[in-house]
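[step 3/7] fold_predict: job queued, chain A
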Amino acid sequence: MHFLLRMLFCFLFLLNLGCVNKQVNLPKVNDPKLCLAQCVKRFESCKTLCVNNCAVCSAKANRSMIENYSEYVHEEQVEGGFVMRGLKSYRDPLQCRKVTCNCYADLMTCEQNCTGIIHKQLRAVPYCT
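[step 4/7] structure written:
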């Protein structure tokens, strides 16, 4: 009997622990002008610090393509074979599909965050040539 009372007491105690008031701390609304100023500051910083944008990625991809193709041509000439592949064979079309910095898109998202309304749009993936 005592065992059942102890078990019941423990069960009620544990059940009571689950009834805790949860305080919701809503984030404070910042001044929209201050928020937009921070967005512009981040945008300017992004433009100066960005090293993996579309133009840089394309330049690296083209340089890599030319180096790999030149190596292939050299190997074929040393072996006495024919050059069957073209320069475009060494270009990876997916190499620059996702660059790590898109400062303008980040600015748009930041500005929308400041207003509290996020506009979602379906767009094609930007193609980096």
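[step 5/7] annotate
Helices lie at 2-17, 32-49, 54-79, 103-115.
Residues 54-79 form the longest helix (26 residues).
exit 0
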